Amino acid sequence: MLYPPRSQSYVRARAQCEYENGYLIFDRLDSCIEVWRLASDFAVDNEGASDSPPDERQRYASTFAEAMHRRHAPRGHFRPWAKLSLPESTLVYRFVYPTLLYANNKHAFLHDVRTGAFVQMIDLNIEEWPQEEVGGICYVDVNERHVFVCGVRSLHVFARDGGAEVLTIPSDASMPKAIVAGTVPGHPFITVLPLRPGSDDYRPNFLAGALPNPLPCFPPLLFSIHMSSMTIG
Asked: φ and ψ at 123, to 5 degrees?
C-alpha cells in the first residue's frame, strides 16, 4: 500500500539532481534513478519513456503533488517520465541531453532519457590504472563522442565508438604533455597534445586540472569540470 508522500521530502536527502532541456533527474535509495519532465512538454497526460516507464510510486507522488499545488500557476511543474533500474551500484552520474551517464569503478553506463533505453556500457579497466589511482573515480562527463572519467590523479577519456580509452591527461604539473592511449578509426588524436607552450622551466598556475598549490600531505586533486562541450581531436 502506498501512503501519501510528504511533498517536501519525496526526493532523498543529499540526492544529486541534474536538469537539462526539460528533464529533471535524481537518484533514490533503491539504486534507481528517476527522470521527470516538464508538464508543459507532455503531448498527452499519460506519456512516458517507452523502454523504462515510471513506476507506481512516481505516478502516485505526482498525483498527490498536483492535488496539493493545483492552486499555483502552471509553471515549473514536472511529471514522472522514467524510472531507470541500474545494473550495478554506481558512484557518480552526469546528464547531458539526451544522454545520462552513470559509473562505478568498473563500468560506465549510458541511457537515452527520451526513451529510457540502455545505450552502451564501457569497461573502465580501472584495475589497469596506475596504483596511485586505485582510490577510484571522482567525477564523470559525456558528450556525443567521448566519456570523461576524472580519477584521483588523471583524467581518462574513452571513445563512445568502441569504448577504447583514447587519452589520459595527468594532474602532475611536472608533466608537459598528455598521454595518447589510442585512436578511434576515422577520428585520430594528434600524436602529442602539449598542455603549455614554450619552455618546461615555466610552471603555470593551472595545468591539466591540477591545483596550483596542493595542501601538504594530500595528493593533487582534479577539479570536477564539466567537459561536455569540449572538442577533442
From this structure: -80, 120
Q: Assign 18 to helix, strand or coil.
A: strand
Which candidate, 94, 212, 222, places its Cα nearest to that of 154?
A: 222
Please give the Cα distance from 77 to 214 (Å, whole number).
44
**Amino acid (one-letter) located at 98:** P
Nearest one of 44, 40, 6 to 23, comparing CA atoms = 40
Residue 137: Cβ within 10 Å count? 20
Q: What is the pLDDT of residue 80?
A: 96
- Successive 10-residue mean pLDDT values, the chain, 233 residues: 57 91 92 93 91 94 81 77 91 94 92 96 78 72 94 88 90 56 50 44 45 43 48 53
pLDDT at 112: 97
Task: Please say whether the beta carbons of 82 and 98 come within 8 A.
Answer: no
All structural domains of the chain, each given as residue ranges with its CATH number in brackets, are 8-123 (2.40.10.480), 124-223 (no CATH)
Judge contact between 145 and 159, C-beta under 8 A: yes
pLDDT of residue 216: 41
DSSP 194: B
